[in-house]
Design brief:
about 270 residues, alpha/beta, nine-stranded mixed β-sheet, 9 strands, globular
């Protein structure tokens, strides 16, 4: 059986990260069905064409507005081409998952929310709350409400454009944790842009084992405690060791997206 083609759009700009390792480990479970290719978008201005069936666009550092007029134009063009391709009746659908930095850029491109810098960095593991649409979302159906996510970001999508969302047929699926003592709008944490295109502000690929090794490094733990407090650090370590929190999110969302996308691509191939 011919393998399904998957493109990973690496948005890390050659900075060391845990995201690429975690994504690759998840994809390894689907190696019987999928062959994949990596595109270093920001560092090499590389963007895939439309000859792939599935795309995963990663998180990354910095501002979602900091393009150089070259790689970002190619990236937004890829995004628009995929969207327009999926609108044409009879075309085999392209499936896309946007993560964190990519999610922010998708929100900017599709004009579905305001993307702005946070007052302080979100760093750690936090609960997110499903919307009504999120409660019926297949990728979230096996998760509790609220469920826990790994969240590391300086930027946020807020003030959703409800008219634009409705025009696209998109739905907001979850919002950041309820903070009754903070007079700020809650950020949008996930959007289903279409039947085939999905995005999360958080990191569904984050695996507890890798994060524990990363954050228990003495130098990293010292910096985290200095910047975010010992209580926040210990809470994050505790959540990483709890199978009902980050482990559950890691095991469900991205693997289920890939399973559903692979099945949909196979079914369309049979019908052609």
């Amino acid at each position: 059986m011919e393998k399904i083609r998957l493109a990973i759009l690496d948005m890390y700009n050659n900075e060391p990260n845990q995201g690429m390792r975690a994504i690759r480990q998840i994809i390894e479970h689907f190696e019987a069905d999928v062959e994949w290719e990596l595109f270093n978008v920001r560092a090499n201005a590389a963007a895939p064409g439309l000859d792939f069936d599935i795309y995963i666009s990663t998180g990354g550092p910095g501002s979602p507005y900091d393009g150089d007029g070259y790689w970002d134009v190619k990236y937004f063009n890829w995004m628009e081409r995929v969207w327009n391709w999926n609108l044409i009746p009879g075309n085999p659908k392209k499936h896309v998952f946007f993560i964190c930095h990519s999610f922010q850029m998708a929100c900017i491109h599709f004009q579905v929310a305001t993307v702005t810098r946070r007052r302080s960095r979100s760093f750690g593991t936090f609960p997110v709350h499903k919307t009504d649409a999120g409660i019926s979302e297949p990728l979230f159906s096996a998760l509790p409400n609220p469920f826990f996510v790994a969240d590391f970001r300086d930027w946020q999508a807020i003030e959703p454009n409800l008219d634009r969302l409705d025009e696209m047929g998109a739905e907001i699926l979850c919002l950041e944790k309820i903070r009754p003592h903070v007079p700020l709008e809650r950020a949008v944490m996930a959007i289903r842009f279409s039947d085939e295109i999905f995005g999360t502000q958080f990191h569904p690929e984050a695996d507890p084992e890798g994060m524990l090794v990363h954050f228990m490094d003495p130098e990293r733990s010292r910096v985290i405690i200095e910047e975010h407090s010992e209580a926040k650090y210990l809470e994050m370590i505790e959540h990483l060791q709890d199978s009902d929190k980050i482990a559950l999110t890691h095991d469900i969302i991205l693997p289920l997206f890939l399973s559903r996308a692979i099945r949909a691509v196979r079914q369309e191939a049979v019908l052609v």
